[in-house]
């Protein structure tokens, strides 16, 4: 486990009692959670990317999240965009788990960010109502919408004063987006930045800058969306450790000190993915995994960033306002 993570000294880390990472506002963030993207529902603007994989929607989000809670996940990673928060709320209600044992994170989508403060406030109320709670542990700006994200961030600060949000964070922020927030003089800097991090997209420079500035990194696509399990290095390390490739990717993530939010709609995989606290990767294994990011992967990342900051806004498909010189690696 990373030096900065902690767990109750008297107990082995488990899903219901995982290690935590301290956030700049004094909160403790569980290092493992359950990702709910494409759980029970595929958003319209994401459907083209998953054509032919409709098995994702065979089970409802309520069923999947009930399984995740039964398996022991207590941190649920949600979003307006995922279109399933009402179902997630039903699963929470059915579980009977007290609110203070859960850690709930959600994100406001680009369309709402573009609409401005009134829409953002209304969306947060909807998310709270859908999830069946009167506060969210973390609320994030999903993408740094050009010309709009700073105002949206300030709106979250106001909503936090009303007690609806415990911690504020961002997602998909380049270092330069974060600097924009800083220069705008926000009253508190983000607790977290949620970005893709895995050995196949390990942007060391960006990660270092955020960590040095006190921002905890939530890794998304920690499992590389299930598309890299056949990589020979990963298979070799997994076989030597008698673990699965998914468990190696999960262990790499928590051992680096990133928050890990694997997603699966299958209960056995939810169990498998969570078993990352009973072994360690050696320095050599970590180095080998650290070296798997190719220049092409960085290029793809930059393309996605440019496309997605305006996605589902009136500027969709254009580069209007998009930062063309971000820290890429
Ligand atoms: N902020 C953002 O913009 C953003 C973007 C993407 C994701 N996220 C968040 O991060 C979470 C995780 O990312 P992700 O869902 O994109 O990708 P991921 O967790 O890296 O991978 C999910 C994929 O891997 C498969 N999988 C999971 N465990 C497996 C296992 N043990 N063996 C084989 N296949 C396995 C899943 O299939 P099955 O479901 O069929 O098992 C699914 O297709 C999301 O759910 C979401 O909460 C945030």
UniProtKB/TrEMBL annotation:
Signal peptide: none annotated. Keywords: NADP, Oxidoreductase. Residues 1-23 are annotated as: Disordered. InterPro entries: AKR (IPR020471), Aldo/ket_reductase_CS (IPR018170), NADP_OxRdtase_dom (IPR023210). CDD domains: AKR_AKR1-5-like. Residues 56-292 form the NADP-dependent oxidoreductase domain. Residues 1-18 have a biased composition (Low complexity). PANTHER family: 2,5-DIKETO-D-GLUCONIC ACID REDUCTASE, NADP-DEPENDENT OXIDOREDUCTASE DOMAIN-CONTAINING PROTEIN. This is 2,5-didehydrogluconate reductase. It comes from Nitzschia inconspicua.
């Amino acid at each position: 486990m990373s030096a900065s993570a902690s767990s109750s000294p008297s107990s082995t880390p488990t899903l219901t009692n995982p290690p935590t990472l301290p956030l700049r506002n004094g909160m403790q963030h569980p290092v493992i959670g359950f990702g709910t993207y494409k759980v029970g529902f595929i958003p319209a603007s994401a459907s083209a990317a998953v054509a032919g994989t409709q098995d994702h929607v065979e089970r409802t989000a309520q069923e999947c999240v009930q399984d995740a809670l039964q398996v022991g996940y207590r941190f649920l990673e949600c979003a307006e965009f995922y279109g399933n928060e009402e179902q997630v709320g039903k699963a929470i209600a059915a579980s009977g788990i007290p609110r203070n044992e859960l850690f709930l994170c959600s994100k406001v989508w680009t369309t709402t960010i573009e609409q401005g403060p009134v829409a953002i406030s209304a969306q947060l109320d909807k998310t709270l109502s859908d999830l069946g709670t009167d506060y969210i542990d973390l609320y994030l700006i999903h993408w740094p919408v050009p010309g709009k994200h700073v105002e949206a961030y300030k709106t979250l600060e106001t909503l936090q004063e009303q007690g609806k949000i415990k911690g504020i964070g961002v997602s998909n922020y380049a270092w330069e987006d974060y600097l924009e927030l800083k220069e705008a003089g926000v009253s508190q800097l983000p607790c977290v930045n949620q970005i893709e991090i895995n050995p196949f997209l390990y942007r060391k420079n960006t990660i270092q800058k955020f960590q040095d500035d006190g921002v905890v990194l939530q890794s998304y696509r920690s499992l590389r969306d299930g598309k890299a399990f056949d990589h020979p290095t990963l298979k070799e390390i997994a076989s030597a450790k008698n673990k699965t490739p998914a468990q190696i990717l999960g262990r790499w993530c928590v051992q680096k000190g990133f928050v890990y939010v694997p997603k699966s709609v299958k209960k056995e995989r939810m169990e498998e993915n969570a078993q990352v606290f009973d072994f360690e990767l050696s320095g050599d294994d970590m180095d080998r995994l650290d070296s798997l990011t190719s220049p092409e992967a960085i290029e793809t990342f930059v393309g996605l960033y440019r496309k997605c900051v305006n996605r589902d806004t009136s500027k969709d498909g254009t580069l209007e306002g998009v930062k063309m010189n971000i820290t890429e690696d």
